[in-house]
Amino acid sequence: MAEVTVAGAGVIGLTTAVTLQRAGHVVHVVASQPGLETTSGAAGALWGPVGIAGGGREFRWAMRGYQVLMELARTTPKAGVDVLRSCEVDEGTGRPWWGDAVEQLELIPAGSLYPLASHLWSFLAPRAEPALFMPWLEAQLAAPIQWRTLSRLEDEPGDLVINCTGLGARRLCGDGDLVGVWGQTVITEPGNLPMAAALGDERDQSAVFYSIPRRAEVLLGGCRVPVEGDTVPAEDVALTAAILARTRAAGYEPGAVLRVRSGLRPARPRIRVEREGRIVHNYGHGGAGYTLGWGCAEEVAALVAEFEAQSVG
After folding, report:
1. CA 71, CA 128: separation in Å to the nearest integer?
2. What are the two backbone dihedrals, phi and then psi, of residue 68, each rounded to the nearest 5 degrees?
3. Is 234 left (phi over 0), alpha (psi -120 to 50) or beta?
4. What residues does 103 pair with on adjacent strands?
5. 307 to each of 26, 74, 91, 280, how far by Cα in Å?
6. What does the angle CA 32 – CA 34 – CA 36 come to, to the nearest 5 degrees?
7. Residue 168: which pLDDT band, with cuts at 50, 70 and 90?
8. Which of 17, 64, 204, 236 is most exposed by smallest CB count within 10 Å?
9. How far is CA 57 from CA 157, 177, 189, 268, 284, in A?
């Protein structure tokens, strides 16, 4: 089995490290900051088809992510994954292309659940709570994470280096296709928001709305704004007010604001999962890290196995 260095401790890095370790490899994770301090800690972490094209390997990864997260929700409560009823606004009534990936898909009247639309696609979806899920992933690792800044992937030890550095890959790989997409969320006490159902309305990209319940709070969003550089913007107070206003327009009164979180989603036209010499890249997932993480990790494991077979041959 291979000795592997995984660069990055966000949700992509940790799911990849755990998957490789389960496959029998010796795994070391190196990262400059804990996952909860990255975009993974600020994410809504609800499985969903946002930003994924129909068909192809992305959809296969998403289906695998759904299966793994649903199994964790049903067998491992301490992992912080729960099953919710996810309700998505869709202008059409034809079966969505991602329908075969989910359980209990049905078209329902929006009613009082979301009066700003006529109908919703409702289905069961797993939601990870980052404050529980990320530490649970870290606890699965046999070796402690090494906290330090990476200068060059090529200088990292091991038979293979797995590049899960997210937006950091722009510097480490000179990847000009990688763009940071800013997201801001408001976490509140529940108020009268639904705690068993998530709501999502993507019709107006300038005024995206979603409500994602956690075990004792609700995450409200949001925005998708491409930005220059790697610095996460400071809280936009006007956007915070707008997110709360959208919530009230949907008929809900959120509880007290607990905190505001921001992050830069690492987006590129095509997610990069491929081997380049002894470097295996796994980055560019945009806002779909929790949806795609396990499927991409298994793809990386297959690339590592292929490398081993070629080395023996």
Report:
1. 12
2. -65, -45
3. beta
4. 124
5. 15, 34, 46, 10
6. 140
7. very high
8. 204
9. 30, 19, 38, 15, 14
Residue 224 three-state SS: coil
User: What mean pLDDT do residues 152-180 have?
Assistant: 96
Rounded Cα–Cα distance for residues 32 and 9 (Å): 8
Tell how strand 179-188 and strand 225-227 pair up: antiparallel
Q: Are strands 81-89 and 197-201 parallel, antiparallel or unpaired?
A: parallel
DSSP letter for 201, please: E
Going from the N-terminus, what domains does the chain have, and what CATH number goes with each?
A: 3-312 (3.40.50.720)
Residue 313 is predicted with a pLDDT of 64
Model confidence over 250-293: pLDDT tens digits? 999 999 999 999 999 999 999 999 999 999 999 999 999 999 99
Tokens coding 136? 């649970």
CB 209 within 8 Å of CB 247: yes
**φ, ψ (nearest 5 deg) of residue 127:** -130, 125
Distance CA 105, CA 116 (A): 21
Angle between helices 11-22 and 289-312 (to 10 degrees): 40
The length of the chain in residues reads 313
- How far is Cα 37 from Cα 35, in angstroms, rounded to an integer? 5
Work out the number of other CB atoms within 10 angstroms of the CB of residue 26. Answer: 15
Q: Can you tell me the distance from the alpha carbon of 139 to that of 134, in angstroms, rounded to the nearest whole number?
A: 9
The pTM (predicted TM-score) of the whole model is 0.96
User: 31: closest CA among 195, 141, 176, 124?
Assistant: 141
Q: Is 104 left (phi over 0), alpha (psi -120 to 50) or beta?
A: left
241 touches 184 (CB < 8 A): no
**What CA–CA distance (Å, rounded) separates 306 from 17?**
17
Amino acid at 250: A
Cis check for the bond before 166: say yes or no (omega within 30 of 0). no
